[in-house]
Amino acid sequence: MKALVKHRAEPGLWLMDVPEPETGPGDVLIRVLRTGICGTDLHIRSWDGWARQAVATPRVLGHEFVGEVASVGADVRDVAVGDLVSGEGHLVCGTCRNCLAGRRHVCRATVGLGVGRDGAFAEYVALPASNVWVHRTRVDLDVAAIFDPFGNAVHTALTFPVVGEDVLITGAGPIGVMATAVARHAGARNVVVTDVSGPRLDLARKAGATLTVNVAHTGIGEAQRELGLREGFDVGMEMSGRPEALRDMVANMTHGGRIALLGLPAEEFAVDWSRIVTSMITVKGIYGREMFETWYAMTVLLEGGLDLSPVITGSYSYRDFEAAFDEAATARSGKIILDWTA
Is 200 assigned to a binding site? Predict the structure, then answer.
């Protein structure tokens, strides 16, 4: 089968013929239809410091996908051949304290699909049935392909109650844009989104942002004044991993405000912890999705009319992966889809 492989420990990706994945009695073999390009995939392509530590070559990349079940193992009961499915890309041990308590999203032994084991940038991918999400209701294939990052957005946006609250989102990348749509759909009063990319701020406005702020030119405090917010923001969602973004967020939160952190910083940086303490601000880290409560919430949100179409800005045949990755690496694009049927 064809697959996108990190074949050597150097920058680049290779489209290669590789064997179809082997499956066991509890596994599902999936014919891939669409995949989404993630920031993780960009890191692996460029072979930066994180990628060199996290990935052993050769490795088939990819963890955002939708496909059709081609076969199931003898022990699989709730997934059938022909089902349209996406997959939870965090494979957990099932035996640690958190897994046994039903908190699989905080398993210490998590292995990432397309990072620690071969992934979905291929004509076929294999997953344990326990990691397969069957789409029981109709869903657009491109949207189904990005359920993984959509789940990050939903997990972040719904970590704290947002009904009637004033929300600040720093970082208008694809997940920040999706979180904007979720927060508005879930009842936030105002959603302010910051970035330094004009095109991405345009996407945030299409997704429902009340106000967007290009922080290269305008401060968050000015946005507060424009909206008449006298005490600051109630809920913050940090999506950029940028030190200045978190510092600005902390400085503009109300007393008792709550911050959900999804953006991964490239290095350690200082934060005004005195402000966090004296303002009694709650800070919570978010990694991935709750299994499978977040997936259920995603499906219900889409059934309720949530529109993710603004975040999808490009689609390519997998054969044109170089152009697709180049576009995904810009500061202008939303989610880029690879079509494995074209």
Answer: yes
